[in-house]
């Protein structure tokens, strides 16, 4: 699939940007820091995710001194769904208003099953070097990307965990709280569903991520799901773990067993990436995880997703910059931002220069 055209209005520092006839190829967005490269990629990301990959708040998205809301519009060409026109109005406060092919859409998953993109940004470094919650978030993003309609598995588990923790926190009596058995059953049912989805997501993305890293570094990236509950049958193993930790849970008044305590083990040169990887190795690992996810999505839907890569070269040495640039050519539509002209990949089919929120094709 590819983005055919995009229009941003009052989006960040873009008062009005329109790009037409975008090729199904490697596109480089170039310009000094602070000129609007990342903002352009963020606006495009809105058309696929219906939210910013950079912030949970939409208020900063609306351009300062704008008279009204921000807008992102664009058309995605897909083999399965044909032309998909996406229009997003971002008021800054309150819910975004979204139309897909002129019809109102209220659930993100209704769009995400039609169009797919994978976004990488500098904040992805925390997936590798941050605490386990960052890697759990990455796995859940992978689930949304691969199987948008299964997002309910995450919300069901989060709701169950929240209610069970509340029961534990408010209990003042002896023994287990009244109704705990029912919440145990819900936790096991929803937790095992999420564990299986995370395991499958990791199985899908780990091999291509490792291949990308090996091409880049000459040695592999080990990527393995580390669930908090293991054993077969999984439901029975979950129940046993809950029984074993019951007294600890009553003392600490929180749930100590379940996928909210999962991790994703990442290693380079047989050493844990979080503790032992250099900055360049950790950066490359974060990038390769996203590229691996892109390959997994392509295998799942039989169509390449659009890749949006914000500043992927900044922490890589010149050789690895060149290797990544070569690797990105031929992967469908890929948009890459760079702050240094020396980082413009040689295979780029189009270079867009960004200055003060305005965009122009180089050489036009």
Brief account:
The chain has helices at 37-49, 108-112, 125-129, 132-146, 152-170, 180-217, 234-252, 273-276, 279-301, 318-328; strands at residues 2-11, 14-19, 26-30, 70-78, 82-90, 97-100, 103-104, 117-120, 221-226, 263-268, 271-272, 306-310, 334-338, 350-355, 358-361.
Strand content range: 15-25%
Distance between the termini: 25 Å
Strand order of the largest sheet: 2-1-4-5-6-7
Give the overall shape, derived from the CA principal axes.
Answer: globular
Number of strands: 15
Mean pLDDT: 94
Specify the helix fraction band: 40-55%
Low-confidence stretches: none
> Using only CA atoms, what is the Rg?
22 Å
Major sheet details: 6 strands, antiparallel
Structural class based on helices, strands and sheet pairing: alpha/beta
* Number of H/I helices: 10
SSE string, helix = H, strand = E? EEEHEEEEHEHHHHEHEEHHEHEEE
